[in-house]
Amino acid sequence: MIRAALGRSTVERTPVWLFRQAGRHLPEYQEYKQKTGRSFLDMLSYPEDVAECTMQPVRRYDVDAAILFSDILVIAEAMNVKVTMPGGVGIQVPAPICGPADMKERLPAAEELNEQFVLERLGHVIESVKLIRTQMRKEDISIPLIGFSAAPWTLMYYMVGGSSKKNTHIGIEWLNEHPEASTKLMDMLTTVVIEYMSEQVKAGAHMLQLFEAMGMMIDEPNFNKFAMPALEKISKELKSRYPDVPLMVFARGASFANEQLSKLGYDVVTIDGSVDRSTARDVVGGRAGLQGNYDPRELIADHDGGRTKETVRKTTRELLEALGPQRLIANLGEGLGGKESTELVNEFVKAVHEESEKMIDSAE
Q1: What InterPro entries does the record point to (predicted)?
Q2: Whole domain around residue 152: which residue ranges?
């Protein structure tokens, strides 16, 4: 997995893991959640719950990485912006930041945003990373652990009142109406993201994934003006601290940014389902590897007339043939939503390994 990400040598088979591989599609997760009596967001405050949920897909599937079980908005919570997830309506921010004065009053001062801030406000996440590593050793599991964070624009988008289902205009309005405050907020969030991901590495994460999950909610000029400088600063700072820790980025819904992202020092650029596979390699050149972009709907048994192990293997082969088995981390173009069949997810993982190994062997 790390070799594929860094691209320093070839691999015998393409590695694979899945966005949201832990959580709602797993029956063992639903059972565990019911047993604890805690909500998803509440579970994130308990390192033992986080460790258990992180380990569940690793026990079930032959994936090549574990990923920290967490949420993209833990940084928002740490910065005094409450997040709720009532169910069925997505992420909610009941009291968003409503202007520069509100931002100044409610958020921590910029000079407070350092390593100590992360340890105080997000220490439970860092403890979770340590506990996961301990549990992996206990169970003799030697795959990498991926730490992650939301990117600054995604954090800002939710913190000022945007969501995936309504108020989708608010983020852009904020950028246009409050450019100075927006720049300051993005700078503050960038600092926290860097320190947060850095602490995850110190705690034992082997790889890092940055999610610009709301890339589709910002136009290209504003992305280049506000989001891209933050992504560049994060890459440069983390790579200067940890040059051998693979750094992956996913600008979901903003594929126009992928070429530039490949020039910023990220080892892997993730492509979503909208990206044309035939040109994806040309966009990133030899500067970065690719990750993605299998359609998770192919893993829903009753999708579009029915999906089977055979259809999964066929579409997996198409993914590998289009993107090539080297310098690739097979993954999804969108996270698992909860309706996927565990049998078909397992077949996808198996098919990536088996079909890529055949392709690599035949090319030698």
Answers
A1: UROD/MetE-like_sf, Uroporphyrinogen_deCO2ase_HemE, Uroporphyrinogen_deCOase
A2: 1-362
